[in-house]
Design a protein that fits this description.
Blueprint: H1 10-15, E1 19-24, E2 29-33, E3 49-50, E4 57-63, H2 72-94
Antiparallel strand pairs: 1-2, 1-4, 3-4
Length: 96
């Protein structure tokens, strides 16, 4: 079963092992977003993040893995990407 998530969606970020950190400027909170729990087909572009504590608007920082391509970490990451794409394919097959 093959599924290629669309660029610009949470599924794409999760499948390609990005990390998203949300920053709340008013109260200086930092939260790592769990991309696995986000709807895979929902777009993150122009998303406005709101702090659950102070309800102020925050910002998000997207960060890919910065491992060198020939490192053992990059090889493990490629295996993880393949696994995540399979998980997304199963989720999308179940979703109505």
């Amino acid at each position: 079963m093959s599924y290629e998530p669309k660029p610009g969606t949470y599924g794409y970020l999760w499948a390609y092992c990005y990390s998203v950190t949300a920053y709340c400027t008013p109260c200086n909170r930092v939260v790592k977003v769990d991309l696995e729990k986000m709807p895979p087909e929902q777009s993150y572009i122009n998303r406005r993040w709101r702090c659950q504590y102070c309800h102020g608007l925050g910002q998000a920082n997207l960060s890919p893995d910065h491992s060198p391509r020939d490192s053992p970490a990059a090889k493990a990451l490629e295996i993880e990407r393949t696994r995540r794409k399979e998980v997304l394919a199963q989720r999308m097959a179940i979703a109505p």
